[in-house]
Fold these 2 entries.
Entry 1:
Amino acid sequence: MNSHLSRGPPTCQQEYWQRAEVAIGSDLHDSIIGPKKYRMCSPKACGGAFDAPHLDCRQTDPLPNSLLATILWMKKTLGHLAWAAISIGAAFFLAGIAVNRGEPVNSMWLVLAAVCTYLVGFRFYAKFIAVKVMALNDKRATPAERLRDGWDFEPTNKWIVFGHHFAAIAGPGPLVGPTLAAQFGYLPGALWIVIGCVLGGAVQDFVILFCSMRRDGKSLGQMAREEIGRVGGFTALLTVLFIMIILLAVVALVVVNALKGSPWGTFTIAATMPIALFMGIYLRYLRPGKVLECSVIGFVLVIASIFGGQMVADSATLAPWFTLSATGLAIATMIYGFVASVLPVWLFLAPRDYLSTFIKLGVVLMLGVGIILAHPPLALPALTRFTDGTGPIFAGKVFPFAFITIACGAISGFHSLISSGTTPKMIAREWTAWPVGYGAMLLEGFVAIMALIAACSLQPGVFFAVNSPAGVVGTTPAAATATISSWGFPVSASQMDSLAADVGEKSLYYRTGGAPSLALGMAHIFAKSGGGRAILGFWYHFAIMFEALFILTIIAAGTRVGRFMLQDLLGHAFPPLRRPNWMPGVLATSAVIIAAWGYFLYQGVRDPLGGINSLWPLFGIANQLLAAIALCVATTIFVKMHRSRYMWISGTPLVWLVVVCFTAGWEKIFSDQPRLGFLADAARLQNALDAGKVAAAKIAETRTQIFNDRLDAVVCGIFLALVLLILVDSVRIWYGILNGSRDARVEEAPFVISQLQPEEL
Amino acid sequence: MRAFLRVLWEVIREIADENAYQRHLRAHGRSHSGEEWRRFCDRRFARKYARAKCC
């Protein structure tokens, strides 16, 4: 704006600006005058007197100084009052859900607590980081402008980048994690999602996006290698590969547990595969480039498949074909993963990905609207008796296990891969990183809050009957309902049977993994918002289809990426493996990746405790440890930027994650309770074997269980060791820089002034 | 409201890669054809699906 004033001949416009600046300072344009009142004038229209778009004074008469000052005072005061009200609201609603005991809380308390806290975090904390630490500068050309290639690097409108980034970070994690953590009650999960997101998750996403943007869009692994060292880079790569394997196993287990014994759900999901193949051919040969048109057709077909699933479930001939056991579904999922990862991307994965992304965004929107319309009361208490570690869904006390069970939604290491992937290559102005990096994560946190509400709005007895494994509550409906009722959460077998009939299922017991209970909660909210119980079955299977569709897309894409990483790693020893189209290499490495996650999946399916008890904490620890690596990189960069006085911004969540993950990891390996500690469970089984207390038919299975427990302990130990390595390496660098013995050289791209014009966006 | 809907539409087109395809055509001075779309897809998908999808 000052450049307008200093150039060109004096005009009434310049005089106006000068007076305005005296009265209210240089933020005039943003803070007082909006484009609706004063149109923007292009340089051309002004006869070249000004070299940038500016306010067109011909649209209005200049205001007197006194009036300008009054407007400013009112605007500032109203702004302060509004933010004060939002801040007080945040504190009030948070306190409301925290102190309430005994009577049901309406879900709107959670919604308002989250919204107010997120607004305050976005406006004050994130802006503080952007100004004081990052020194974001819109005059600095971003990689999207400097390296523009029409492919990856392209300056893009900020809201489009926001939508694209949010679609990329939103996965099943923020839906499933809060549902599982609801076993502690709604309070621990709600507080962690709200506070963890503002101080941890959103900070991580924002800071990594900033770091990548200032480094030509480099990936987390590249930044770790350059800023911390080769050990850091290699460790990050290895950690990502291990996490991917556990992630694929655990999300596959969620799908398997949702579909076992359900011909309706299984048919619907099976039908999405020929639909995706049809979409692939349609898009490539019949109507090239018409992605939206193709996705609409795919959506209509998927909805038709839900109705088809109901007919299959009602058919005595067809239903048995689609009624699969957990083991059968696990094998089918592995075959699916293998085929999907070797088929051409355009034929299967890409059309499926388009479809699942649109359905995912649509369902999130529907859930938000549904919760506002239905605003259900939370039936689960603030805290349950299971905070002591005796929970049926997974073992472990509220600290640290609530904080690793909810990863995505509060803080997720996986987001750092997205924030250092496509997004930094699309950002046109540095300040856009603020809403995109920080804001999109807040929205994901809100999705997690909605999932928590959907789960907690179920009757507690129903919630535990659906999510508890037979190994904990008993193998018959009568035993299960008696056990759950004895915990103080009354539920009857007839109630469960009636609910199962309402949603078109034979049984809803022992469906561990979170997806079915989330689907039930969502179906109730959707049905309450319109349609009633008559269409509960449709909504339940719609929710199951939505969860399974994008989880299976993640499995296909993840297996493929895992294969690429393996090809890259093994290619050092056997160079032909590095050729992406060398079919023997493709098949062999795909098979290795499938075998790796398939083994853990099979282990989960066979686990009498439902698999989630051992696999979800492993996944949570791994995901949070990846976040710890990202925060190590961010802290190192802050220190190198001479911003060590602000290293607490990334250092605080880093310390918290290290404490949480190492406590959880230690307990998972060494706890003396067999349900919690892997080694204790292996010892218990070994003792039973040695004492001859295991039936002959079960000896082989017990030996496998012992091996699996020890394997899980080793995997958990490897995660901790890898992160310890990168943490020590980082601390060594920070110490060296802070005591002056090491050069603080940053690897930032040089400053280039932006030439981008607003009309280009 | 109109501006909001326009941005929403553009977000949807971006997710669908339709905007990226238009950029590709502009950047390389080409016009739309089935062959061009397939060339664009092969290159875009090779990069897009070399990255992990978020959990």
Entry 2:
Amino acid sequence: MRSRFPQFRRTTNRGDRIKWLGTLQPSPRSDLYEVEISYNIPYRPHIEVVTPRLATWAKLKKQPHTFRDGSLCVHQAHEWHGNKLIADTIIPWICVWLAFYETWLETGCWLGEGTHPDLPEHSPFGALGRAAA
Amino acid sequence: MATAQKAIWFQSSREQLDAVLLEVCDEVQLTPTRYELAVDRYGTVNEILEKPGSPFQFLRPRIFPQGSMALGTTCKPVVGPHDLDFVLQIDAPQWSWHPLAGLSALYEFLASNETYRKMISLKNRVVRLTYADEFYMDILPAYTDRSSGGTCILVPDRARVSLRPSNPEGFILWFRNKCLTRTRSLMEKAKPVPAQEAVREKEPLQLAVQLLKRWRDLAFADECLAPISVVVTTLAGMYYDGEDSVSEALTTILAGVVNAIALADLQGMRITVRNPSNLLEDFGERWDANPEAYNEFKTGIRTLQKEWAVITAGGRETNKELERLFGEYVRTALVKQTLRLQEARKAGALAVGSTGAITGLANGVTRIRPNVFHGDE
């Protein structure tokens, strides 16, 4: 982690539980996001955007591809296991999620695809409307 | 020429902002189909004016585009038809005995034509042909100005019942030359109708003018108070300083205009916007008759400069500001960019740098492996 993303610091390390806190900026004009990754071995890492607080487009109640607690779901269960490095997988996936999130927030278009395409927050058309798109 | 490729990732905030602005300009300009339609229509009018029976047949009529079509700065109006401006230049010193003779002759001749009869109207300086598909063509009849020489012409003004000095061809040359200050200073002869450049081939000054016109169209709800296109274009050309980037060009232009306004205010005057190729023509003269329009312009351009400074500072939130200035095309631009990002992701061509910045595959970056976003239903 330190070699790939030196801005990430371990904030907790209790044997089976590790937490990292660091910043990510997916593009030069993006916001700078402070992200916390909690890894309770052997469960999937829990990803939370600490600042800025995630917002929603229009009147939608949640962001695309998130869990009920607001944490990010950047992969399917079979795509990650404990032998994979978080720095090689989870963090790059967070970066692309953030990039798609920023466009979604402006346009209502979720363009990163994923599961449950019929959910309103996953629509690739958003404000542009299906016909216009 | 602005040759920026449609980038997927960006090295700097300026580069990323420029990419959005290029996309906006792509949306704002005349579509290639409509551009070709305009060229066809102007060709047809030209043929009719040269045919036997035309009062212009022996006066060496020459019709050529002026304004946005010739300058490469077309900008779709927010509402209403798209206007395209042409000059009909005739070599007829014997007609200048009456300043409106050419205008009347053109109107009467086209009004007698089966095709144009229902489309024609007479304006202060031009004969207007209104086409059914949200499109009109303004034809300005003009005499060659032999006393001023060069490409100078005299154009009619019905309100003043006089001929006014002008030089649209000289203006086109001046503007094209200004565009080229970035890389070269070759003078280029004005062509009958330049092929419309793709946005990515345009010069930063042309793009800056398109954006300023788009801002003008959205910011001035009352058309009578909005600065006319030639004023916007001339000011942009005057203060452009050869920047490679459209966003930097806008910054420089806005600073130049705001400073000029401040200086003029100190002297108790309005800014001067003369045709650089015919100093007798003052593009800003409408402001003398409408001081409220000048005050609105001053307020508008100062506000724009402040808003623009916020946008160039960066941050995701500034996309909203961009949308406020240039309209819904900003959203379309973001969607297009993000779709390209998704295509690159699917192709396995993306990586992230140490700050989390998405980039291409290279040494020292982390490749983005395939994944499917998931989450609760």
